[in-house]
Each structure stands twice: as C-alpha cells, then as structure tokens.
Design a protein that fits this description.
Strand content: under 5%
Number of strands: 0
Order of helices and strands: HHHH
Number of helices: 4
CATH topology: Four Helix Bundle (Hemerythrin (Met), subunit A)
Structural class: mainly alpha
Radius of gyration: 17 Å
Distance between the termini: 26 Å
CATH architecture: Up-down Bundle
Length: 109
C-alpha cells in the first residue's frame, strides 16, 4: 500500500506531522543539552561519544525537518528519485524516508 496523494488520509497525515514535531522537539532539546555540556573529563572516548551523539542528533533533526517540509509541500511519500509512491509500510517504519527501497538501494551502491 502506497500513499495516493489524491486520497490521502488527512487525519493520518496530521498525526504523522504531530509525531514528527514531537520528535523534532525531543531532538532539539537533546542537541541543546549536548552542546551545553562543557565538562571535559579528559577521557578521549567520552569526547568521541559526545561528538558522535551530536552528529547523529543533527542528522535526525535534518531528516525530521525534511519530512515536515515534504508534508507541507504535499510531496511526502513520493520518492525523490523515481517519483513513485513510497509504500506505506516503509513510511511507517522510516517516516523520514525520501526514497523507495529500490532507489535507496541504488543510492547505497
């Protein structure tokens, strides 16, 4: 089952938008906490872990922002490469998906 933009379930899309907005708020709060931590323990492993958490959090925020933008534009659920509908099952698992599985596999090489 894919999203058919002509018959999209607006309540489901509203729920998704709200869920993504909540995730955005959570990730933004996490980013703020990570950037405000200035405690240098001298442990290079801890510094590396913190840096990795910052990168992952920024990536999550970017993905969520992109999904919210696509919802606002009316392009959510459409593969950015082949322009086919992304299956609903994929979007339920990965709500920020930009590509269908075949196009994602091609992108990953």
């Amino acid at each position: 089952m894919s999203i058919d933009h002509r018959t999209v379930d607006h309540s489901r899309l509203a729920d998704l938008r709200a869920s993504l907005a909540d995730d955005f708020a959570t990730q933004t709060s996490r980013l703020r906490e990570l950037t405000e931590l200035n405690a240098d323990t001298g442990d290079p492993g801890e510094a590396h872990n913190r840096a990795e958490l910052l990168v992952a959090t920024r990536r999550n925020i970017e993905q969520i922002t992109g999904a919210l933008h696509r919802i606002a534009e009316g392009t959510y659920g459409t593969c950015e490469r082949c322009e086919r509908n992304i299956p609903m099952e994929r979007l339920e698992i990965l709500p920020h998906a930009r590509f269908c599985v075949p196009c994602q596999e091609k992108a990953n090489g």
